[in-house]
Structure formats: structure tokens, C-alpha cells
Design a protein that fits this description.
With 252 residues, the protein is α+β, with helices and mostly antiparallel strands. It has helices at 2-13, 17-30, 36-51, 56-72, 76-87, 89-92, 101-108, 114-132; strands at 142-146, 155-156, 160-162, 168-172, 180-188, 195-201, 204-209, 211-217, 224-228, 239-248. It is built from eight helices and ten strands. It is elongated and about 70 Å long.
Length: 252
């Protein structure tokens, strides 16, 4: 099974840390002792990670599958493969704040009792949350909004939500032109009235505070960037809902 997985992954996505993590996950599943349905579920998570295209979401799925296998497997060989799989997430680099998991994964290998391994893994997850917040992508995902076709004016009317997993939206325009850019958005998820996000266009910056707002940029340079600037903190989950935008003539 690991050999077949390695051949398939090398063929379709090429060599790399993500490829190695999938091979280690397959090896851990192959040597798993216990309920065969667990093996099927772990392999299903590995297969699902391929759908995500090898980005931070893929690595997160493989890491979650490996931690689950490390928790429930009765085979030391299987647990070693699962722990090694978790450790490949650090040099792979697309998900941050995972360092506290590494000692937990290593120390769980020799433990024979399931509850001991589970407690150690849960302690590692708690350390991740306390020290670095919710693990996220080390390179923020950038959503892109393309202007509506078939209209006389340049506009973007589809709603796009932004959060810390996808904190950036780019407003793209086919060609530059004069006009005023009007953006409608709402921001929230924080426990104060401070700045949640910012709109960046060339050297201009407009701040987005808590609540619903309409912003205007007199001479926008495209692409215009909308980005969450508030970091994660306990009980604070900053979000911005882009509600639409249009470019108006100066006399509108």
C-alpha cells in the first residue's frame, strides 16, 4: 500500500513534503491494528486532502488523520509512521503554529494505553491553541473578485466572506479607468469598535471598523486589496463580509 501510494502521489503531484506525508499516512494505515473501518477512514482523509490541491488545507487533513491514527493504533510501527507524518507538517510549512504538536506526537509512540496517547495529543493541541491560536495558513489565501460582465458600469455584486483562513480579497478590473470606487462591506467578530480590516489601493489605505460601512476611493489603482488586519485572540474571530462594489463617474 505505501509503495502504491508513493507511486500515485509522485505521478500526480510530484515529490515534496506533502508527498512524503501521504506516504507515511498510508504506511501507518497499512500497519494499523484494530478496527478496519479506522484504516478506511484514515485513508479517506488522505484521499480527501488531494482534492484540496496540496495547500494548507491538505496538510491539515493529513495531520488530523495522522493524529487520529496515532491515538487509536495498537501497533508501534504504525504509530511511528503516523508520528513521522505529523512531523512532516513543520518543514512543509503551509500551516503554522504546529510546533507544540511535535513533542506530543513523539512521546505518544511508546505509550501502550489509548487514553494515555489521547491525553498527550489533546495536551499538544491545547498548547497549540494557547501559544499560537488557531493554526492557519502561513501564506494567506487570496480570494479574487472579477468584475461583472455585460454591464455598462464596472461592478462587483457578489458577496464574499473573509476570515483568518482566507483574509484577503482582490478586486480585479479588466482595464484601468477614472472614477470613484465605492465599496460596501460589514465587519465584526471582535469585542471592541476598533479596526478590523483595511482597503489598500496603491499608496492609499482606508480602514474598516466594526459595523457596516460604505467606503470610497477617489482614484483607485487595481487590483484593490481588502485585508483583515486584526490578529486572532481568544473570543475574537475577525470577519469581513464584502457586499459589493462599483466604479462611479466623478459626478455621480
Amino acid at each position: 500500500m505505501p509503495v502504491c501510494t508513493a507511486a500515485a502521489v509522485l505521478l500526480f503531484i510530484g515529490a515534496g513534503w506533502y508527498c512524503l506525508s501521504l506516504c507515511l499516512l498510508a504506511a501507518g494505515a497499512a500497519f494499523h491494528r484494530g478496527d478496519p473501518q479506522v484504516r478506511t477512514a484514515l485513508l479517506a482523509l488522505g484521499g480527501l486532502s488531494l482534492v484540496s490541491g496540496g495547500n494548507g488545507g491538505s496538510v491539515a487533513l493529513v495531520t488530523a488523520a495522522s493524529l487520529s491514527g496515532l491515538w487509536v493504533s495498537d501497533s508501534p510501527v504504525s504509530r511511528t509512521a503516523f508520528a513521522a507524518c505529523v512531523m512532516t507538517a513543520l518543514p512543509e510549512g503551509s500551516v503554522e503554529n504546529l510546533v507544540p504538536l511535535l513533542p506530543s506526537a513523539a512521546l505518544a509512540i511508546p505509550l501502550r494505553r489509548t487514553w494515555q496517547r489521547g491525553g498527550l495529543i489533546m495536551a499538544g493541541m491545547a498548547s497549540v491553541m494557547l501559544l499560537g491560536g488557531i493554526p492557519g495558513a502561513s501564506s494567506p489565501n487570496e480570494a479574487r473578485a472579477v468584475e461583472n460582465a455585460g454591464t455598462a458600469a464596472t461592478s462587483w455584486y457578489h458577496s464574499v466572506p473573509l476570515d483568518l483562513s482566507s483574509p484577503v480579497l482582490l478586486l480585479e478590473r479588466g482595464e484601468d479607468g477614472a472614477g470613484i470606487l465605492r465599496i460596501r462591506c460589514s465587519a465584526g467578530g471582535v469585542r471592541d469598535a476598533g479596526t478590523v480590516a483595511a482597503v489598500l489601493s496603491g499608496g492609499e489605505e482606508v480602514l474598516i471598523d466594526m459595523g457596516t460601512d460604505t467606503l470610497e476611493l477617489a482614484a483607485p489603482e487595481f487590483p484593490v486589496r481588502i485585508e483583515i488586519v486584526r490578529d486572532w485572540r481568544p473570543f475574537n474571530h475577525p470577519v469581513v463580509h464584502f457586499l459589493g462594489a462599483e466604479v462611479l463617474n466623478a459626478d455621480d
